[in-house]
Amino acid sequence: MTRLRTTLDTPLGPLGLAGLDGELTHLCWPGADLPDGRDDPTTLPEARAQLTAYFDGRLTRFTLPLAPEGTPFQRTVWQALTDIPLGQTCTYADIARAIGKPGGTQAVGQANGRNPIPIIIPCHRVVAADGGIGGFSGGLNVKRALLQLEGASFEAEQPRLI
């Protein structure tokens, strides 16, 4: 099987998309390397169409065939992330409880950070326990932009006391 790759111009810059047999395996931030594969600007038409509709404010839920590459635990976390509704946020602890691992907050955070298909698997909707924005693989400005696009509310970043 040959992985096919393409890019999509978005308000965030050009996003890289990669997939196998029509299933999306990766969404990469501008400047990040796509996995090896053959470039094909016509590949993943539904992913390109749904992402365009999302950025235009016309899509509230992605319905794409996804094939994220990760451990079984990571895939369980990523599946739980897809249940967070547009415009809402939750915490790592909420996700840990949702997957039946209430003591696994840190592991959930690590899996969240390794999400290979951000935006579509909405890891940006996970915020810090104190209500602050938390971290994000695409950078905090991108996370803020995505949450604002979706109409989600979150607390301003709070300095942490050590």
**How much of the polypeptide forms β-strand, as a percent range?**
15-25%
Number of strands: 6
Question: Main beta sheet: strand number and arrangement?
Answer: 4 strands, mixed
Strand order of the largest sheet: 3-2-1-4
Low-confidence stretches: 158-162
Number of individual domains: 2
Share of helix among residues?
25-40%
Distance from N terminus to C terminus (CA atoms, Å) equals 50 Å
H/E element sequence: EEEEHHEHHEH
CATH homologous superfamily designation of the largest domain: Winged helix-like DNA-binding domain superfamily/Winged helix DNA-binding domain
Q: Can you tell me the CATH architecture of the largest domain?
A: Orthogonal Bundle
Tell me, what's the shape?
globular
The secondary-structure class comes to: alpha/beta
CATH topology of the largest domain: Arc Repressor Mutant, subunit A
Overview of the structural elements:
This protein folds into 2 domains: 4-55, 2-Layer Sandwich (Double Stranded RNA Binding Domain), CATH 3.30.160; 72-150, Arc Repressor Mutant, subunit A (Orthogonal Bundle), CATH 1.10.10.10. Helix content is 30%, strand content 17%. The chain has 5 helices and 6 strands. The protein is globular and about 45 Å long. The N and C termini lie far apart (50 Å).
Features:
4-stranded mixed beta sheet; 5 helices; two-stranded parallel sheet; Arc Repressor Mutant, subunit A; disordered C terminus; 162 residues; Double Stranded RNA Binding Domain; 2 domains; alpha/beta
